[in-house]
Amino acid sequence: MVVSALSFLAGLLLVQQFPVLPDVKWLIVGGLVTSIIAWLRYWRCLFFVLGVLWAIVFAMHRLSGGLPEQLEGVEVQVNGVIADLPEQDEKRVRFDFIPRDGVYAANPSGTGAAITKDGVYAESRPDAAESERQLPAKLRLSWYYPDQPIKAGQHWAFNVKLKRVHGTMNPGGFDYERWLFTEGIGATGYIRPSPKPVLLGSDSAWNSIAVWRQSITDRLSNTLGNSPYLGLIKALTIGDGNSITQEQWEVFRKTGTTHLVVISGSHIGLIAGLVYFLVLKLWARTGWLSQSPQKVAAISALLVAIFYSGLAGFSVPTQRSVIMLSIAMIAIVLQRNSRPFNTLAIALFAVLIFDPLAVLAAGFWLSFLAVSLIVYAVSGRLGKLGHLLGAIKLHWFTSLGLSPLLLLFFQQVSLIAPLANLVAVPVISLLVVPLSLLAVIIMVISPTLADKLFYLIDPVLQGVWLLLAHLAEIPLASINHAPPSYWALLFAVPGILLLLAPVGIPARWLSLVMFLPLIFTDAKQPETGEIKMTLLDVGQGLSAVVQTSHHFLVYDTGAKFSEHSDMGQSVLLPFLRSQGIDKIDSLIISHGDNDHIGGAESLMRGINTEQVLTSVPQLLKEYAPTECKAGQSWLWDEVKFTMLAPSQAFVSENDNSCVLKVQSAHATVLLAGDIEALAESWLVKTYGEELKADVLVAPHHGSKTSSTAGFLRTVQPDYVLIPTGYRNQFGHPHNDVLARYRQADAKWLNSADSGAITVDFENDEFVVQGMRETESRYWNAK
Predict the structure, then answer these.
(1) What is the CB-side half-sphere exposure of residue 116 using CA atoms within 13 A?
(2) Which residue did the predictor score with more confidence, 124 or 91?
């Protein structure tokens, strides 16, 4: 059973590596192959092929629900319901929206569409019936500066502008397109202010879990509005982590306790286990033995797990946990005394059949591996440890055993996780969560009593938080490391099994040798005299990283969207960690526009930065910056860096951007910030042929006021890299500018289309590649 389940998993994994899905005709071929293998009774091969076919069919069905290209950028009216708790910051509200009936009449002219009384969108033109198209089943919408409260379960009529699924794509970064794909979201968009949105009504809490969850979060906000731990209580009870601050998330990451504030397998399993134990003991004492205590306890535990999962909105991780738990509880009800790993294999089958895309989530791997490690830790061992020593042993096993995957997924491992979890897990899982769930249940009957329970929970969380905060401040509480290669993981996994094997197994010390490839995995660095530049995909903004053999420079940091979201946190830091970079030698902020300076503070809080150069030192005073000026230069590893501008003050802040020239042994890069025609003209007059560069990062994102013909004739770039956002509101890059690039015989790549763009200079030549060309998967936008 275990091997069959792993074979099925391997088939699913193989499909997730495909850049494109195969044609439908290959499914017919696959069906024939499956029949032959089944006839020959090669069962393990059969499960592998079935995994491949099931993954392809499921992915085809999911992708078919995307937004048709003809509807992209078209303003339409939609009506429907807000499906889940909205996410709100100081600028906007984001939420999942389920359109009513999901039928849309396309408007190729872009003038809009209207809703009929039957929920069908129809154009005002007579031939509208010929252009009916299906709207995705779920949309991800943003409403900027809403003028009324937005709640789950509300029915609205909106005028929206939609676009197909598209996100930034960077090494080490979060794959937003993959997340949307796994969540079944077929399009994103924003709500237009005109015509004004209309509230059509709201669902009842009796027929909508989302409304029930909304009422709970509203009640918690009213009761604990001033508590700094409100976000934690919301996360533990209803799975709403939107109120947790970035500082709190950072403490949880450093202490390895993030899983404690995310409703997943650990919480659901512990609550179910607690209910099972209590019901088992109480039922046995009643004397009602017509039904065995084990059956009653198993059914009760499963019902509580489903209830808890419902509180979390039946999110994908909780669905997976309930399926796993159901398999274990059904085995108890049916009195099947199966081996633990066989039960786990059946649970794996059930999860993958229900949702084959689960393999794309880090939580899937961490939860199954954690359970496997616990089974491995308690199976076939002589002697019995006490509760304290047993808990210490389990935390040691799981912390050490999960470390390779944590490095792979997050490039970070907490060294104090065993200690932090030893204290926090019992308090959170056995005290805070049960009391919180009890308060939620009582809230329906007696809000006053529920409020008192929450006030009791608050100081407990305060004590846990103070401990975690102090642990996070310990030097080397966590380490960042480049992600290991797959061959290093192949050594590490058996190394873990050998290290954690029972005492008496010979040669356990060899496991430490097998860990060495995991520890000494380093990203490849340029040779002396060479550079590697990565133009990161930060949407409508700019951020580039220049690496020499021993130094790292960051030029601009992308935009800041809210107090909790910016490109420094979401793109730059993950990229630097994926490259094994733990220090920035120089940070250059070209000028003060948000799309260039927005991520600077998050970046400098997250990584040691030696020097800051900027044209707007007054905006970064607390970091003791140096004003960038023409004539500044330095040499790193035989690579010369020269600041060409600013030299004089222009009226436009764009023209005052720091302009940097990077000269390696075989090639030159020019980073020009947001300069426009006036500054370009000054550079041409001042430097002439010294401006010549092999690679030019397009000034001002390719706007029509920049990249003048004279400037391009002087620079003579072989490549122009254009940092822009997908379907940005400014129309960058402008068609006239692209025509000028063609006239200059320059090849150009756009980060919106190519993702992060890497330029490797080596051996008297350079290679320019976009991440969407080399790392794209079938769910990524092409």
Answers:
(1) 14
(2) 91
